[in-house]
Amino acid sequence: MDSDYGVPRELSDLQKNRSLYKPELPPCLQGTTVRVEFGDATAAADPSGANAIARSFPHTYGQPLAHFLRATSKAANSQTIDEHPAVKVGLVFCGRQSPGGHNVVWGLHDALKTHNPKSTLLGFLGGSEGLFAQKTLEITDDVLATYKNQGGYDLLGRTKDQIRTTEQVNSALAACKALKLDGLVIVGGVTSNTDAAQLAETFAEAKCSTKVVGVPVTLNGDLKNQFVEANVGFDTICKVNSQLISNVCTDALSAEKYYYFIRLMGRKASHVAVECTLQSHPNMVILAEEVAASKLTLFDLTKQICDAVQARAEQDKNHGVILLPEGLIESIPEVYALLQEIHHHLRLGVSADKISTKLSPWASALFEFLPLFIRKQLLLHPESDDSAQLSQIETEKLLAELVEAEINKRLVGYELIHNEYMRTKEGTYKGKKFNAICHFFGYQARGSLPSKFDCDYAYVLGHSCYHILAAGLNGYMATVTNLKSPSNKWRCGAAPITAMMTVKHYGRGSGSGSTTLGKPVVHPATVDLRGKVYELLRQNATRFLMDDVYRNPGPLQFDGPGADSKAVSLCVEDLDYMGRIKELNEYLDKVRTIVKPGCSQDVLKAALSAMSSVTDILSVMTSQSLE
């Protein structure tokens, strides 16, 4: 009920202590001056989609990067905004709740009041539905008092959010006009920020004065690109899950008779599974990206896990822990194709109990092979983005059943060879009886108190949103880079959401329906199988599998050892794209200063030679990336 939003919470002693913590702002956001430096116009990461994006977003494509600087900065091309009239800003939570979301509200509120105490922040109640219905709550210090540094989205709530249809976009436009909003801040992941970009474009075309700003908040960690290093909530989710996983590892090592199959929330990408593996060192992780790249079937996965179980049994180890991302089920080729057929019939209005009679022969055979509980879960209506309800499909139980059946056959002399069970001379599995215990970790973590990192990061992003609005920018996402460093060295800025978009031109079979494929969107970033994080995972895979080097990071820490620890993947990756762009521009400025009319012939020749070499190399690299 709307009356429940924003009511004071009853806090534990720890929650009270956390509510008193005040994140530190980087120097570029401190004080009452907004100083911004604009870079060059942005372009699409994939040039092949640039024309399509430019056509779809004529008012907001090609805008420059923005860097926020400290008030004392001497940057020649920067602008100082000294006047800060009272403004009215709306904020809406879109997408699933993610730890740290409340601090975005707090950071934006503090920035608004710091620059003009008469400014107003309105929170929309109940997510996008509250935006359409113009249901608001004015955010004040009293309202925020028991929500600072706290988990959940219960300050404002959320719904099954999207702002996509013409009716929804028009309702949002009407709400912003009626409430006379100067800015609308949308807090969410890839889908929500794609919607934010479309809203910004529509508002610009309609000459609506409301500026739209996106904030990267999603526990999945899949809103990553050259501008966005991390998402609010990912750090917390991985730390909480890693402790749970580590506890299970210790239990497995103690009892020495159970295999734990643990499915992790995180949607289609496997970022959460990778990070939790690097933090807790379970015996095995199966990534959706690996399965998709190698086109591994259910039988392939079953054999892969059974071979691992058998290898461990030969060392008298009859226990283990296996992690699975929730998006794994959609990455298995034959299951994905089956889901496409099912979703196609559901969209046509075929009832779930009749769909099995409508399937093609091969899909029907697979459907009948699967356990009854999985069949029921595959028949659930798809999400708004046409994906399966991944959190409801118990992939861990499916694989545990298949592995148990295969181990039992190996025990008595049968083995899965070329997708058929064949009798061998004697059983190849010599271990103890296989016992599986299944878990799904997701809801337990996403309502957690946010980590210190997520508290700081979200608060800084909230502050940055005000700077973006003060600079008059529309269709931008708040960004913070150099996150692996202490917060006083973070670089704050903003990037056009259209610069993060790509266009994927491929079909998805007869069940494509109303998918957004072929349209410019912010696509989820998957695990890079050529990246440094994956390389680190592969380097340790054999050791993790055979040596039981379980690691327990312990519960979330807010002070002392561990409080300032950051995600392993964040520290391993070679990031700070925005900082490097700025550094490159500084070098180019130096070249312009040195090489100008009147310089010596030798200086001019050296500059031409160097620039020729650089452009040749970059041309080759760019052409290779397009192949």
UniProtKB/TrEMBL annotation:
<keyword id="KW-0324">Glycolysis</keyword>
<keyword id="KW-0418">Kinase</keyword>
<dbReference type="GO" id="GO:0015979">
    <property type="term" value="P:photosynthesis"/>
</dbReference>
<dbReference type="GO" id="GO:0009749">
    <property type="term" value="P:response to glucose"/>
</dbReference>
<keyword id="KW-0460">Magnesium</keyword>
<keyword id="KW-0479">Metal-binding</keyword>
<keyword id="KW-0808">Transferase</keyword>
<keyword id="KW-0021">Allosteric enzyme</keyword>
<comment type="function">
    <text>Regulatory subunit of pyrophosphate--fructose 6-phosphate 1-phosphotransferase.</text>
</comment>
<comment type="subunit">
    <text>Tetramer of two alpha (regulatory) and two beta (catalytic) chains.</text>
</comment>
<dbReference type="GO" id="GO:0005524">
    <property type="term" value="F:ATP binding"/>
</dbReference>
<keyword id="KW-0963">Cytoplasm</keyword>
<protein>
    <recommendedName>
        <fullName>Pyrophosphate--fructose 6-phosphate 1-phosphotransferase subunit alpha</fullName>
    </recommendedName>
</protein>
<dbReference type="InterPro" id="IPR035966">
    <property type="entry name" value="PKF_sf"/>
</dbReference>
<dbReference type="InterPro" id="IPR000023">
    <property type="entry name" value="Phosphofructokinase_dom"/>
</dbReference>
<comment type="pathway">
    <text>Carbohydrate degradation; glycolysis; D-glyceraldehyde 3-phosphate and glycerone phosphate from D-glucose: step 3/4.</text>
</comment>
<dbReference type="GO" id="GO:0047334">
    <property type="term" value="F:diphosphate-fructose-6-phosphate 1-phosphotransferase activity"/>
</dbReference>
<dbReference type="GO" id="GO:0005829">
    <property type="term" value="C:cytosol"/>
</dbReference>
<dbReference type="GO" id="GO:0046872">
    <property type="term" value="F:metal ion binding"/>
</dbReference>
<comment type="similarity">
    <text>Belongs to the phosphofructokinase type A (PFKA) family. PPi-dependent PFK group II subfamily. Clade 'Long' sub-subfamily.</text>
</comment>
<dbReference type="Pfam" id="PF00365">
    <property type="entry name" value="PFK"/>
</dbReference>
<dbReference type="GO" id="GO:0003872">
    <property type="term" value="F:6-phosphofructokinase activity"/>
</dbReference>
<dbReference type="InterPro" id="IPR011183">
    <property type="entry name" value="PfpB_PPi_PFK"/>
</dbReference>
<feature type="domain" description="Phosphofructokinase">
    <location>
        <begin position="88"/>
        <end position="343"/>
    </location>
</feature>
